[in-house]
User: Fold this.
Amino acid sequence: MRFRFHIVLFILVLLSSCGAYDKLLKSTDYDLKKSKAKEYFDDGQYVKTTELLTQILPRFRATDEAEDLNWMNCQAYFGMKDYLMAGSYYKTFIDQFPFGKHAEEANYMAAVCDYNLSYRPELDQENTKNALEGFNIFLNRFPNSSRVEDCKKKIIDLQDKLVEKSYLSAKLYYDMKQYKAAVVALTNSLKENANSKYREKMMYLKLNSLLLYAQFSLPAKQKERYQATLDDYFSFMEEFPKSAYEKDVNGIFQKTNKYLKTGIPDTEVK
Assistant:
C-alpha cells in the first residue's frame, strides 16, 4: 500500500509541475520567464530553457542582458547535443556579439559543433570542411588562446578524415573496374594529399589501373597507354624501391615490357 501511495503522490506532483510549467509558458510575465529559464538551465533542463528563451529573447534584444540570454540559449542546445541548432546559434551569436565576453568560446564552440556533426570518412564530408574552416578562423582570431593545441589536434583529425575520404572515393572507381576514372581520381587525390598515409597504396592502384586500362583499350590506343604505364612504374619504383607491393609491381612491369617489345597484350588478370 505504501508503494502505491508513493506512486500516486509522484504522479500528482508530476501533473502539478506540468500544469505550473504550462501556465508559465502562457504567462506574460517575462521577468519571471527569464528567472525560470536560468533555473531550468542550472538544473540541466535544457528543453524547457530553450522553450522559454524562444519566447523572451525578442523582449530583451536591446538590453544589457541580451548577450547572456543568447549565450544561455546556445549552451542549452549544446547541452541537449543538438549540434546542428547549437552551431547555428553560436554562429548567430558571433555575428551579434563579435567582441563580447563570450566571443572566444563562441567561435570555438561553433567549430566544435561542426566537428561533432562530421560523419565517418565514407559519407559526406561537408561538416568536416566546415569544422576545418571554423578551427582555422579561430586560430587566426585567437592565436594566444588556451584552446590552440586542442584546435590543432582536431584539425589533424579532420584532415585525416578528408584524406581517407579522398582515398576511398578514388578506390571505389578501381573496385568498380572503371580504370580510366580510377586513374584520374587517384592522380587528383595524390596531388591534393601528397603526404597521405595511403600514398603507396594509391600509387600502386593507379599503376595497376593504367595497366588494366591499357590491356583492354582499342589496339590503336594501346601503345601510348602501355607507355604511360611504364612511365608510372618508374615513378613508383623511384619512390618505393622496397614496396610491400613489389611482387605485383614487377608483374606489371613484365606485362608492360612484353607488350612494348612484342605488341601482344597480356590480358590475364589476377
